Amino acid sequence: MKNIRFLLLFSVLLLVWQESSYAQTKTDSVRVLFIGNSYTYGNDLPELVAQLMVAKGIRFGYESVTAGGATLQKQWEEGKAVAAIRRKSWDFIILQEQSTRPISNRDAFFQYARLLDTEIRKTNAKTLFYATWAAKKSSDEQPKLTEAYQMIGKELGGLVAPVGEVWKLALSDSLSLHSTDGRHPNMAGSYLAGCILYRVITKDKAVGLPTQIVRNGNSAGALPKTLADSLQKIADKTPVN
Questions:
Q1: Considering its fold, how many domains does the chain have in total?
Q2: Do the beta carbons of residue 65 and residue 84 sit within 8 Å?
């Protein structure tokens, strides 16, 4: 009788241990490290992307290494980005260059993208370039920005999220995406960026994604449904790799 009780107790403990072990090892389905500047941390883009993922049933974990105006060169030289790359097992590492540097100093952009990509490859993560948009007063610079990101993405075999090109489509529909400074994104601009990053990572469509960020049960950023629907449809018009 004691043996039977012992076996039953052992079975229960084993089951509890297995469930606990599973909970510890069944971690995020997608792990993403964001490396960039205010174009990344503005409107809390990483959290926005996370909530888009979670709404579709995708377990998502992320960290960010960001600083205002930071170039990839600065991120490399300060060492925090490299330490973050090495610290965990990531699925995707998103690189966002300072907004004009792909034009003003393409050589430096490429040089530090290559250095970071070398570190990323050591971890078996995938490099994903977050190709940003031109300033409102410099819309003619968008082709040059896009070309630079596409060139380095192709060279390194990385993914490219063509956010700037999708912004161009939305702006042609007279949608407002820039903040009052004419450079940074407003909430709609960040939401559209989030939709594109979602599409590149999941290979899924943006239509049907939620329209707001929620923190502690409260809305921390919401778009009118009609606007969000329009942005989702625009996001789905552009092919992503």
A1: 1
A2: yes
